[in-house]
Amino acid sequence: MAKNSMVERDRKRRKLAQKYSAKRERLKAIIESPESSVEERFEAQLKLQQIPRNASPVRQRNRCAKSGRPRGYYRKFGLARNELRRAAMNGEIPGLTLSSW
Question: Which candidate in 44, 55, 57, 84 could, as Cys together with 16 as Cys, close a disulfide (CB 3.0–4.6 Å)?
Fold first, then answer.
C-alpha cells in the first residue's frame, strides 16, 4: 500500500491539471502561434508561469486504483502488477487468464 500522502498529492495534481487545462492550452497556443507578436508571446509566457507547477500534466504519476502503487502499473487495467495478478486469479477481469506451463 502506498503512502496516503503521496496518493492525495497525486489526486491534488490531477485536480489542478484539469482545472487549468483550458487556460494552459490557450496560452501555449498563443506562444506557439507564428501570427502572434513578440509582446503577446512574452505576455502569454508570463501568464503561463503564474499557473501553479502542479497544474502541469507532466507532474502526474500513474498509480494503481486499488493500492496506489506507483510502479509496475498497467495502463490497460489501471492496476499494479500484483493487484492485476490477484484480480486475474479471482476472475475479476473478464477475458484475462493467467498462463501456466
Answer: 55
In terms of DSSP H, where are the helices of the chain? 4-32, 38-50, 81-89
Tell me how far the alpha carbon of residue 36 is from its chain's centroid. 30
The CATH number of 1-61, from 1.10.287.1480, 3.40.50.1820, 1.10.10.10, 3.40.190.290, is 1.10.287.1480
Enter the C-alpha cell of residue 88. 486475474
pTM metric for this prediction: 0.78
Query: Which candidate, 67, 74, 78, 71, places its Cα nearest to that of 1?
Result: 67
Whole-number Å distance between alpha carbons of 67 and 80: 8
Grid cell, residue 10, equals 497525486
**Model confidence pLDDT, tens digit, residues 2-27:** 789 999 999 999 999 999 999 999 99
